[in-house]
Amino acid sequence: MLAVKTAISVDKTIFDEAEYIAKEMHVSRSKLYVIAMKEFIDHRKNKQLFDDINAAYSVEPSVEEQTIRKVSRQQHKRIVEREW
Predict the structure, then answer these.
(1) Would you say residue 3 lies in a domain?
(2) Residues 36-69: b if buried by 16+ CB within 10 A, e if exposed
(3) What's the pLDDT tens digit per position in 48-59?
């Protein structure tokens, strides 16, 4: 992995809390920031996926799709009833 150095400005309170957490976790401050950024990035990706799924399901199915679903449910019902 290629590492890139960067300088950031952080509120003193957040910096102090991060220092404490890094010591508590026995990791460097850099490692803690990497962990935090990775979690933030993963959270954003998951939120985007969740939003995309919700958008896909918010669209009403077409008449054709509704017909296919109805036929599929009827076929499934017949199969299940035969098994019992």
Answers:
(1) no
(2) eeeeeeeeeeeeeeeeeeeeeeeeeeeeeeeeee
(3) 999 999 998 888
What is the number of other CB atoms lying within 10 angstroms of the CB of residue 21?
Answer: 14
**Domain tally for the chain?**
1
pLDDT recorded at residue 10: 95
- Of 65, 54, 4, 53, give the one whose Cα is nearest residue 33: 4
For every residue of 4-40, which 3-state class applies, written as one string?
Answer: CCCCCCCCHHHHHHHHHHHHHHCCCHHHHHHHHHHHH
What is the span of the domain harbouring residue 51? Answer: 12-83
Distance CA 84, CA 72 (A): 19
The answer to whether residue 2 is domain-embedded is no
Query: SS3 for 66?
Result: helix
